[in-house]
């Protein structure tokens, strides 16, 4: 059975891309990798991974994903920091979705910092 294409748009099979982060085989080396894997977790409906990669100071107690929202694509627009050697970084992205026959996009600049050496999502601001 052919492997599912990764939702993050890398063009790779899921199990060679964000799937390795979701199942704990690998950890994100860069903030951009974590961003991609979190988008894929939204697209695949994996709130556990989203909570696990949320910074402890901003993580919500529970996360319910809206099953009516279908994520249809991710565009990375800009990054700062977030490299192998960085302690923090930002990723600006546009995530497209479809809900109840309508399409829309979430345009956000997310902040990522390391916690216990691993990249975590801190927070994000909408870009309009
Ligand atoms: Zn991916």
From TrEMBL:
The YchJ-like middle NTF2-like domain extends over: 30-124
Q: What is the lineage of its organism?
A: Bacteria, Bacillati, Actinomycetota, Actinomycetes, Geodermatophilales
SUPFAM superfamilies named among the record's database cross-references = NTF2-like (SSF54427)
Q: Which Pfam families does the record associate with it?
A: SEC-C, YchJ_M-like
Q: What is this protein called?
A: UPF0225 protein FHU33_2160
Reading the lineage from the top rank, the first entry is Bacteria
InterPro entries (UniProt xref):
NTF2-like_dom_sf, SEC_C_motif, YchJ-like, YchJ-like_M
Native source organism of the sequence: Blastococcus colisei
What is stated as this protein's family in its record? Belongs to the UPF0225 family.
């Amino acid at each position: 059975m052919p492997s599912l294409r990764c939702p993050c748009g890398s063009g790779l099979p899921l199990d060679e891309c964000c799937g390795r982060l979701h199942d704990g085989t690998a950890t994100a080396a860069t903030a951009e990798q974590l961003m991609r894997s979190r988008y894929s977790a939204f697209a695949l409906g994996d709130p556990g991974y989203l909570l696990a990669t949320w910074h402890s100071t901003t993580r919500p107690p529970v996360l319910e994903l809206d099953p009516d929202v279908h994520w249809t694509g991710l565009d990375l627009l800009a990054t700062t920091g977030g490299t192998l050697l960085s302690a923090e970084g930002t990723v600006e992205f546009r995530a497209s979705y479809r809900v109840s026959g309508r399409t829309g996009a979430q345009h956000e600049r997310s902040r990522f910092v390391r916690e216990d050496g691993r990249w975590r999502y801190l927070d994000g601001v909408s870009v309009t």
